[in-house]
Amino acid sequence: MSLLPVMRADKSREFYEVMGSFVDNVHKSVFHLDSAIAQYCSGNKPQFRKSANLVIDFETNADFSRRKLEKMLYTGVILPFGRGAKYEL
What's the pLDDT band for 78 if we cut at 50, 70, 90? Predict the structure, then answer.
């Protein structure tokens, strides 16, 4: 029995790039959120505003990437493996 690839060859590279972008944006958002909280607690309102705006920007980008990933998954980037293989058992 041969193993089937889980992801379609023509879409796997794009999927992993979008996934990397999503994770990167979430990481940067959390980093700047931590900075924003520290700035707010220290009373540095102008720097807090800058950090808060960066959080919003990175979260917006992460949401865009998430929606793109969802669309890719719904349109078949992952092969429906197991259809034929389960009948071979």
Answer: low
What distance in Å separates the CA atoms of residue 28 and residue 47, rounded to the nearest whole number?
16
pLDDT at 20 over 60: yes
Residue 48 resides in a domain: yes
Q: Domain range spanning residue 48?
A: 16-74
Band the pLDDT of 5: cuts 50, 70, 90. Answer: low
Nearest-CA neighbor of 39 among 31, 50, 48, 30? 48
Helix (H, G, I), strand (E, B) or coil at 78: strand
Total count of domains within the chain: 1
CA 26 to mean position of chain CA atoms: 7
DSSP class of residue 84 equals T
Tokens found for residue 16: 């992993």
Structure tokens at 28: 């940067």
